[in-house]
Each structure stands twice: as structure tokens, then as C-alpha cells.
Amino acid sequence: MISVPAARAxxxxxxxxxxxxxxxxxxxxxxxxxxTRISPEAPVPVVDIARxxxxxxxxxxxxxxxxxxxxRCTVAGRFADDEAGTHLSKILADKKIATISTPxxxxxxxxxxxxxxxxxxxxxxxxxxxxxxxIDPVAVEKLFAKAIASHDAIILSDYAxxxxxxxxxxxxxxxxxxxxxxxxxxxxxxxxLAFADLDLIxxxxxxxxxxxxxxxxxxxxxxxxxxxxxxxxxxRTHHLVITMSEDGMLLSTDGKIxxxxxxxxxxxxxxxxxxxxxxxxxxxxxxAGAKIETAAxxxxxxxxxVVGKLGTATVTPDELLAYIKK
Length: 326
Known about the structure:
Layout: H1 4-14, E1 18-23, E2 25-38, E3 45-58, H2 59-68, E4 72-77, H3 83-94, E5 98-101, E6 109-116, E7 119-126, H4 137-149, E8 153-157, H5 166-179, E9 182-186, E10 200-201, H6 205-212, H7 224-235, E11 239-243, E12 249-253, E13 256-261, H8 274-287, H9 292-306, H10 317-325
Parallel strand pairs: 1-4, 1-8, 2-6, 4-5, 8-9, 9-10, 10-11
Antiparallel strand pairs: 2-3, 6-7, 11-12, 12-13
Helix pairs in contact: 1-10, 2-8, 4-5, 6-7, 8-9, 9-10
Protein name: Carbohydrate kinase PfkB domain-containing protein
Organism: Nibricoccus aquaticus
GO molecular function, one term: heptose-1-phosphate adenylyltransferase activity
């Protein structure tokens, strides 16, 4: 675990960091209520709604986590001219997060979760087909070149909704490399997105196996050495951090196994958005000059706070320092 003085010093440096997040933004809508009877129309519960709450999801939640830790942030994604887009823009503006609306015909992605007595009953998704979020390859450089130059780090946040394509990733990576900027990706292997020469990727255990093309074997330990070597061979990523749930974080640099950071979580209430927190805190720490082990311990503590909250959530510097102190 990172010490309080080390975390405080790192947070001070993070305040000067500027991060550009490009990816699939969403509005997370929560309907809270209670269910005490079954509908006479069908064998389903009747939910008496008490309240609605809204927060940023997907790539927009990564941005919220960056801003919550004190860094400056811009998020780029599809903000359509609709109710969800307006609501999401206001949430981000209230946190002083700048926005870049990408062209397209897709609606603003909205995920509505119905919760009864703090248990999720169902989820309702509103989104367009992936093609509706894609950007013309010719427009990518014009849209992002200036923003990349004015930020210290770029995060590509892929939720497999369509915005991130091979062309976009290649162009953004080229611009970031040319400008000497840190670039990270949270991949979704089911999309088989092409990428290479990044500073950091943060798959979970299942995603790491998929990216490496290795079949999971429930009867044997996770093949860490083989996975890390294979991922470096395929993608030439400098840092690899595999989030391992209750087993913590596995670190690898240039294909070689590093340390395993034990989980810092003391109470797990909801893992929604924990990956966003891990990615955001790793990137701001590394961009602020932390070594990979220090950054991972910092990120592990931040994730430990967030999984103790319900729904997609963020961690503030005060919450983080208090958690470490305990």
C-alpha cells in the first residue's frame, strides 16, 4: 500500500496533469424504488419509483475519475442533441470537464438501471448501431491534433460501441507519439481492435487471456508469464497492468513479469466502474512521474474506495488519503 505522505505528494503533482479521454461516453441513469407486489398483468414485480439519479458512464466516467483526483480533463465522444446528451454535458461541465463532441448520427448512449432495495433488478440500454458513432478517418486528425498537443496524456476508452476504430486508434497513436504524449488503452477484446506501441493497457484477467489468444483453464493457475510475454509480442505495449479482481493487480513491463499488488479493497459493494477508476488513477499517476509500482499501489487504493460504493463512482483526494490512513 502507498503511504499517506507519498500519496499526498503524488496528488500535488497530479493537479498539474492534463488528460484527454477519447471513447464511448454514456449517461448512467439509476431508478431507485421498492417492489412489494407482483403485477396482475404478468409475473413481474411492480416497482414503486422513489427517485432518479444520473451520472457519467463509460469514457465519461473515466473523465470524472480523473477530475475527481484533481487533474484537468477533456473528454471526446458522441454528445447527440438529445435529452441524454444535454444531461451528460451538464454533469461534466459541473465538474469542470471540457468536452469535444464527435460527429455522427448516433444517439447519446444511455444505460438505465432499476434498483430495488439496492439490488439491480434490470438494465435498459438506449444506443444506436456502431456505425452511427464512427468518425470519417480523414476527419480524425483534424478533430484531435490540437487537443492531443495540449494535453499530457491520452486515454482511449473502448466500450465496443463503435467510436474507436482501427483508423482512429492508429491516427491518435501516431499523433501522440509524434508529440511525445503518454497514451493508454482499456481494450475490449471482443472487438479485435488493432493497436500497438502504447504506454499502457489495462485488461482484466479474462480480457488479457482473450487478447493473448490463450484459452482459460479453470484447473490451473493464471499463466501470467506466458500471457505477459505474448501480449508484448503482439502489441509492443510498454506497461501492462492486468486487474485480477480479488487477486489484485499483475504488473508487467516490456513483457517481463513484475510484482503482483494485493487488492486494497476492504469491502466490495459494487464493482461497476472500478475498471474506469483503475485506468484513470494509473494514467494520472504515471503521467505525474510515478514509477509503475507506485502508480499501481495508488490505483489499487483508489479502486478500493470505489468498490465500496454503489454504482459507478469516483474517489476524491480526501477519501483516498483517509482510506490509506486506515
